[in-house]
Amino acid sequence: MYTISEVAKLLDVSTHTLRYYEKENIIIPDRNENKERLYSDMHLKWLKFVMKLKQTQMPIAKIREYARLFEEGEHTTQARLELLENHLLSIQNQLETLASTEKMLEEKINKYREFINQSKSETVK
Amino acid sequence: MYTISEVAKLLDVSTHTLRYYEKENIIIPDRNENKERLYSDMHLKWLKFVMKLKQTQMPIAKIREYARLFEEGEHTTQARLELLENHLLSIQNQLETLASTEKMLEEKINKYREFINQSKSETVK
DNA sequence: ATTTGACTTAGAGTAAACTCTAACGAATAT
DNA sequence: ATATTCGTTAGAGTTTACTCTAAGTCAAAT
């Protein structure tokens, strides 16, 4: 079991953020006799998954919705599947946008480099 | 030349957002005799570039910085190059994150599909 | 015994990026 | 002539996701 500051360090988030996620019903850790939060390996695994969703632009509200469906039990598997399928589509769109912007930027960067090199050689003249 | 609502439609943003970008010094269109905004093809091209940067998570502040460097003239090419190079790195990081999350989601989705199919066949029994 | 450090809570504050409102002006449609 | 449409401005309001503050509890270290 991990304390809130251990989890914060492990996942590179602030303790504030972890408490905020709890308030938003995204992760509800256990408590010790002293009411302090204790996170298990399962909690950690779920949080890592949440971070992946966050890093790929899933809003907190959608993550909360997925968490809620999970809590509701097996009859929500179809809904969870659909939510994940939608997010997969969003990821694929983002991949396309990023790839095309990457290409565009590489071209622009090359033009800048050419321009800068040309300016330098003219300066030497 | 395009009016603000034409540009809004063409680029799928609101007129509010276009005025906001102007306030943020990201795009300054011309004006007609009636003080109404008029965007040229050059403005449109720049706006499309801005949208690409936005879609790949460049903050407005950085976009404004790039615009400002551009206004300042040729002696800022090195700074502009560096800004674009940094954003290219950010895009490459995002691509990695998205690719690995895509893989993870595909696996999870497959497990959900298996589970749902299995449940169905058991229901038939 | 007291200080230090890590934790607790409720709730306030912040930053980014819009998004909307109100009050007005000009041009076109009926 | 008046109503509608499209534009203008300054500035207020909203949403998202934190981020911080204040006041307190508790256990270990000096």
Automatic annotation (TrEMBL), chains A, B:
Coiled coil spans: 81-118
Sorted UniProt keywords: Coiled coil, DNA-binding
PROSITE patterns with a match to the protein in the record: HTH_MERR_1, HTH_MERR_2
Cross-referenced Pfam families: MerR_1
SMART domains for this protein: HTH_MERR (SM00422)
Domain HTH merR-type span(s) in chain numbering: 1-69
CDD domains found in the cross-reference section: HTH_YyaN
Superkingdom classification of source: Bacteria
Keyword DNA-binding: yes
This protein's name: MerR family transcriptional regulator
Biological classification of the source: Bacteria, Bacillati, Bacillota, Bacilli, Bacillales
